[in-house]
Structure prediction request, 272 residues.
Amino acid sequence: MHLKRWITAIVLLPFLILLIYKGGSFLFAIVVSIISLLAMWEYFRIVLNKARSSSTFSFQLLAFIICPALIWAAYINSLHVILCLITLNLIVSSLISLPKFKSDSFIVENITKQNMGIIYIPLFLSCMVMIRNGTDGVIWIFFLLCIVFAGDTGAYYVGSYLGRHKLCPAVSPGKTIEGSIGGLAANLGIGALFKLFFLTSLPWGFCILFSITIGIVGQVGDLFESELKRSADVKDSGVILPGHGGVLDRIDALLFAAPVAYFFKEYILMNS
Prediction:
């Protein structure tokens, strides 16, 4: 498992770096749209109760239309369009449900899960596009990704070798308090290195707060996806990334971290 994780990371890392550094904002938005669709497909595989409902296809189709539309609304930096799309999704999914409610008592449950998925995946990922299109967007994307991935790696290895006390056993029995602390230490270390070499004008207080906050919400995002999988008795969201599971398994921490990073960059930093 460790070898597969490293081989997958080594293969994908150069492409990720080239995409962010040389690909431009348009190509970045395309790739984020694709990732969003793949993650949404895995999310539906986990949460939609197909065994008890015959009306899941319509909700999935609607989501696969709204999903890239949200990413492109972020690309043109239109928060108004993003709000309208989220509203439209709820209205249309509600309309779809009305004639089917009599024969499908689980349809309201699936509406709720579909609308949550729209917020959880494309809306949160759209913040990546807005960060990329903002001031020093390339550096900030690298900053965010390095902190999240370092925290994930630190938590994994510290937890594997030193973990003794369970962090949240009902949700994820393998995660430990020691691993969580190791992840936060890695978040701080990478955040400090980025501040020293790439974001020299960034205040130290902001850098420390940003790194710790991103680390915490990233771990919450990881646990939240584990909660979804455990409720559906699913081990991995997919198998597309050897050693990592599915796309959703790989970006679960990033999903929660991206909107928080956008808020920090656009509101806290700009007003500090």
